[in-house]
Design brief:
Elements lengths: L2 E7 L12 E3 H6 L4 H10 L12 E3 L10 E5 L15 E7 L2 H12 L6 E7 L9 E3 L6 H8 L8 E4 L1
Parallel strand pairs: 7-8
Antiparallel strand pairs: 1-5, 1-6, 2-3, 4-5, 6-8
Amino acid sequence: MSIGLYIVANEEFQEITRDDDFKTLDELLQAGYSKRELTELLKNMGIDAKEIASDEKVFYIDNSPNSLSFQIFKEDGETIDKYIDKNFKYCYEIFIEDLNSFYLDFSEYLKNYNFSYEIWKIREDLYEPENIKFLDSIDISRESLKMIVEDYSYAYPVVGRF
């Protein structure tokens, strides 16, 4: 089961992405990770550290204090196309990187936009249009975002209209 979080609008949002999900072991060492941490990280991914060259790039999660709490990027809308009103021009997918910081950071990000939009949380492998939970005309805040994201009825779509 895969849960997707999307935002749709007729105006554009600024994309926020991290383009360095892969770094070499040398780069990670220079960034402050210890050899022990890297060995453990690779072990958890099922990789023997002895089999990786120091200049080979590996996937990692940035947990530094300056890391992003979310990423938002334009996507074709194909995944939620069956749910959304076809009048929306733009669709963005939202990846939550750090849930603890996400609500404050994302609500502050959205306060920069003075147009209407919808935030959708859907189960990507199931289409349940008759069970959509609508949260209409709510102000953007940490609490309103939590109502969408932390709604634990995973089988049913939730949409917040702002």
